[in-house]
Amino acid sequence: MMRAHISRRRFALIAGTAGVTPLAVVGAEPLTAEAVVRRIQAELGGDWPATGPDGFKAGDPSTVVKGIATTAMATLDVLKQAVKANTNLVLTYEPTFYGRADGRTPAASGAGRGPAGFGADDPVVKAKREFTEKNGLVVFRLRDHWQARKENDMVSGLAGALGWSKYRVKSDDARYDIPPATAEETAAFIRSKLNLRGGLRAVGDRKATVRRVLLYPGAMTPAIMWQRYSEVDLIVAGEVREWENTHYAADIFAAGEKRALMTIGRVVSEDPGMRACAEWLKTVVKEVPATWIGAGDPYWRVNS
Amino acid sequence: MTAREVVELIKKNGGVPFNERSYRDTFKLGNPDSTVRGIATTMMATFAMLKRAQAAGLNMVVSHEDTFWNDRDDVKDLTENPLYKLKTEFVLKNDMIVWRDHDHMHSMKPDFIVVGELRSVGIKGGENATMSPRLYTIPETSLGEFAAQVKRLTGSRAFRCAGDPKARVSKILVGPGYATPRMTAEADVVIGGEQQEADGGFDNVEYVMDAASLGMAKGVIMLGHVVSEEPGMEDYANWMRTFIHDIPIQFVPAQEPYW
Q1: B96/chain A closest Cα distance in angstroms
Q2: Total CB pairs under 8 A between chain A and B
Q3: Most buried of A75, A279, A297, B59 (most Cβ within 10 A)?
């Protein structure tokens, strides 16, 4: 059912040519999803193991590509927009089928963690597969290798979306020194800039003056939090575990330090980096258009 | 009575085998042989909570969650951390003891954490609930109305929902903390504390977004980890009073960390 990777043998043949434009597909040969992926793999380099998260998740890799859409998460709404935008290859940073296994096998049931996961006959899984088939869509997950790119567009993309690009302290670090504002004002600014609905959550000193900011798209581990929090006034992360990093930020606040931690949501934090991916694709795959489709903030709140 | 003796009584009265190899359910700080003057139960031994317990004259803290900001309470990378030193010194200076009861609590029948969570979100019939999620039926309402009611009842500030607020719902699955249950074919709404948003074992959020896109009634309500597990620690304090009579026992809330 799932094509986890392109032909290993063929990739091995081109891997040695990374850096040089490989297999210049000009003219005659139609550009297939597989050919696009081969070019991306050659440009990004590295090893692409079949067991890794990156790979084809839906559709036929031999499909001729009309246009490419990038997104943080290939939700059904994103796929519908991709079809409307006349694209048929979707590059997604996060899974398509509701978990790291991404449709390969039904998710196993953990003890006490609820009934077993979904099989192929699940109505949502089925409907999503049918939608991709009916519309000739191909979905490829591009996470590890995009994140590993030395330019790290996940960070600079998020900074760009916030209008903070020029405040970067060092080109190889995610620290930004922004014009000072209170943590509360900064939270409102972020909400508005990223079009957030209910996803932003903040802990720490709401009155703290925020100037030094660490941007951390995706999920931040406790070790990074412990290392970096004391250097900055604010960490903006995608998500953290509440009983670990949030707890640390709360304790730092209780100890009287004027800092704040804001989590904006994993997908929201990754959307801008995939916008940068679409821009990059335009330089790598010139035959077809590449466009970004934001997955958006999944969360809403109630006001009561 | 020493803290060690208190823990022995907890093990004896829990009614389930105590897993001595659990890395979670251990003493985290302080001298287990210190005399206990009062016991505080809490969802999480935050620094602010420890200060409140100390001010109330309670020197033993039974915490459901970790003390040192990682599930294993592994402190090897923290020995030079100023916050670690501050928190540790505060506890030791005040002859306090912190012990964690997590895995053991979730194996108890009932599991007070789940019982407390069900009560706090207004679902009836959960008095004997365990960690195995059960489907509860409520009078049919919209996801938005139900979410508003849950928010009112729990007082959660960092309350987040996904799915269509207009969806008609009545079948509810509830799990505590990070053990947010997987959505099932039968359930309309999953209530949990927190969950990795994507790329986990099962991503509820993307699933309910897609279900909403298909017009199917599915929703997720994320209470926050502390909010979801806090009420059960009051039940735990009440339970401890049934077998410890001569030491004051109080529930000291950790309180939701978010603005």
Answers
A1: 17
A2: 197
A3: A75
| Average pLDDT taken over every residue of chain B | 97
pTM exceeds 0.90, yes or no: yes
**What distance in Å separates residue B200's CA from the closest CA in chain A?**
5
User: Token pair 């050919």 is at which residue?
Assistant: A35
Regarding whether A165 and A133 lie in a shared domain, the answer is no
CATH of domain B112-227: 3.40.1390.30
Q: Are residues A12 and A123 in the same domain?
A: yes
Question: A213: domain CATH number?
Answer: 3.40.1390.30
- Which amino acid is residue A304, in one-letter code? S
What single-letter amino acid sits at B213? Answer: S
Residue-range domain boundaries for chain B: 3-101, 112-227
Spatial neighbors of B14 by CB under 8 A, at least 6 apart, are B104, B108
**A68/A88 Cα distance (integer angstroms):** 6
CB-CB under 8 Å, A127 with B148: no
Scanning chain A, the segments in alpha helix (DSSP H) are 8-15, 33-44, 76-84, 123-134, 144-148, 153-162, 183-193, 222-228, 247-254, 266-284
Predicted ipTM > 0.95:
yes
pLDDT tens-digit series, residues B204-248:
999 999 999 999 999 999 999 999 999 999 999 999 999 999 999
Query: Residue A199 is part of which domain span?
Result: 153-267
CB contact under 8 A, A113 and B151: no
More confident residue, A111 or A62: A62
For A23, other C-beta atoms within 10 Å of its C-beta total 15
pLDDT per residue as tens digits for the range A185-221: 999 999 999 999 999 999 999 999 999 999 999 999 9
pLDDT for A99 beyond 80: yes
Distance separating alpha carbons of residues A254 and B48, to the nearest angstrom = 6
Look up the CATH number of domain B3-101. Answer: 3.40.1390.30
- The residue of chain B with its CA nearest to that of A74 is B206
